[in-house]
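Students often ask why we bother encoding 3D structure as a string. The short answer is that it lets us treat folding as translation between two languages. Here is a chain of 796 residues written in the first language.
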Amino acid sequence: MKKTYLLLTVAAFSSLSMAPPPKSIYHNGWIDFNKNGVKDIYEDPSQPVEKRIKDLLGQMTLEEKTCQLATLYGYKRVLRDELPTPEWKNAIWKDGIANIDEHLNGLKKTEWSYPYSKHAEAINIVQRWFVEETRLGIPVDFSNEGIHGLNHDKATPLPAPISIGSTWNKALVRQAGQIAGREAKALGYTNVYAPILDVARDPRWGRVLECYGEDPYLVTALGQQMVEGIQENGVASTLKHYAVYSVPKGGRDGNARTDPHVAPREMHELYLFPYRKIVRESHPMGVMSSYNDYDGVPVSASYYFLTELLRQQYGFRGYVVSDSEAVEFVHTKHRVADTPKEGVRQVVEAGMNVKTNFTPPEDFILPLRELVREGKVSQETLDRNVANVLRVKFQLGLFDSPYVKDTKAADKIVASPDTKEFVRQMARESLVLLKNENQLLPLKLNSLKRILVTGPLAIDTTAYVSRYGPQHIEVTNVLEGIRDYAGKQSEVTYVKGCEVIDATWPESEIIPTPLTDTEKASIAEAVEQAKQSDVVIAVLGEDEARCGESKSRTGLGLPGRQLQLLQALQETGKPVVLILINGQPLTINWENRYIPAILEAWFPNAEGGHAIAETLFGGYNPGGKLTVTFPKTIGQIELNFPFKPGSHAGQPGDGPNGYGKTAVYGALYPFGYGLSYTTFGYSNLIVKPETGRTQGNIQVSVDVSNTGSLAGDEVVQLYMKDLYSSVTVYESQLRGFERVHLEPGETKTVRFTLKPSDLELLNKNMEWVVEPGDFQICIGSSSEDIRLKEMFTLSE
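And here it is in the second language, the structure alphabet:
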């Protein structure tokens, strides 16, 4: 019966998808939302937004206000009906709803997926119901994930955020945001949950792959571009996960990610740094509150985090949406509320605006109504929270233009062919060359008769898709990319060699088990083929099942039998190239010592196979840099950048002639590291003024030259040292970077402007200030490969 009704609903509404609203609410070019025949202030686009909010709030009932503080999860999660049905008039959202979230299931999974215009039409049908069938006609904000491309079937796929970070290319990241925002707008989404601003300080944490890196300045610089790129399209960008989310104890990624061991100063300087700067400068419309606690207080129930910091200090004007189950966890996980209702009170009082979850919205709305009636939540608090939601809807223009105007445009915009080259370019620029002994790479096809490709990740495609991005996309894996590039010049053979993991993993990382007969035979087959080949390309690492949300690792070596396979291949004496597909830093000490060439590919996008092949055979010169430190052993964790003086030092007595050594010292690959097929020289560093004021700008310029024989990209990195200060500061801090392309023999001047905010520290009173004194500018190719230094001095 319901299916019959849906078909009738489609027939009734599809013809209206591009038509103006019916005459009953359409008057001389404006929409009469409450159908009273009068243009109310909130319906008048010429009125100031704050005045429109006040007018609308004055007309809303308790029921309507509380409905604006909850989310409907999409089809088959909470919203059981694909499109409006008669039952909706009896559902709690008959009085409206803040948001409909489709990021896990929804219209995109149904008959409305293709062509894309069908999805836009379906969004219009749902939106029209809320505009026409609720009393005040408050439109809905439709949201979806977008951390590496919009999470919609076959939308434009981007590599994982850790790959995006490795490009160090701000213009490229802005373009990625523009694509995600443009596609979201065309499909009918008005809110994209991106970017992730978590600072990934523990490589064991499963969600490292969803972060740009471990350094707050880099995360901020790239996150800012993503926010502005998305919002250029009239779509809200929602930052996540606020706050101190990315350092659960021991890197363990459980349901609540509780107990982050972060000191207050470190919290502000590292984990809140991106939010403070981006909220102030880029004005995102959304923030997602995390479900961890900080110092015993759940962030989603913290007035300090959600109101004092975010709104009063940073100036946030949008709305805060909770991460899934954050509200429930106040009662069930953190247990600071003895009832679910008390948990609702705490989050509302803290300043959390919209509750999202997989449970019905009435689980939040009904207790909230009781709290208001009982006087436990004031009308003032309720109105303030609702106003923040309405403000975003007004700023997005939903009250004045609630529908997708041209639904057919989605078919041309989403995953358009002109984005394919961009997707491949982003994959290319994300590749990081970790080792290239004796210039083994690039491989010369005309001298290779037979190539062996081996390893389970050569044919795996899960790592190209991963969560929170486009699904069901066409992927070119590494084997396909190599075969396509090699063509008929070389014979390409594939042998899997082993699985990603063995049968007893991860227990086998604690007590290694003997190889089974099947595993021995598989490795032996790869070895036999290697002996008959001119070069071996081993594609190893992690798949999506071994890395990601709720998939943290206690060991960071190659899982399963992959290292045994690699060692057996190396023993053949044939040159071996290692391609890493992974989402977090790995402890690859043996690999680094004995394998001559290593290329880090992270979790690439759909064009990753092509980009990797081009790079292997010289069609592209890699220029990506690491945004996370690779430790030599998990015993060194935390080992990351930036760090305090002495915190990365060796033990007393360490040294070439010392005794009593007790610890491994130094990173395997440091932050900012990455090689090229060419070489670069630095010269003519100029810092002006040499003596300046604490509130003035510092201008820095440096010449960078390509001193090799191949064109290539260099990421010029600027680090700043505050030599003496009132509190202990970081040994060195990234404060600028630019990716530049240089032809052989070409020189370019790279310029940076350091603002007072780049020189700030938190003093003893926890105040952000620029202290007078001596500073050092360090320019280099990585945090440890510093080529030039220059001093400047600031006075009051």
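Translate back mentally: The chain has 22 helices and 27 strands. Keep this in mind for the problem set.
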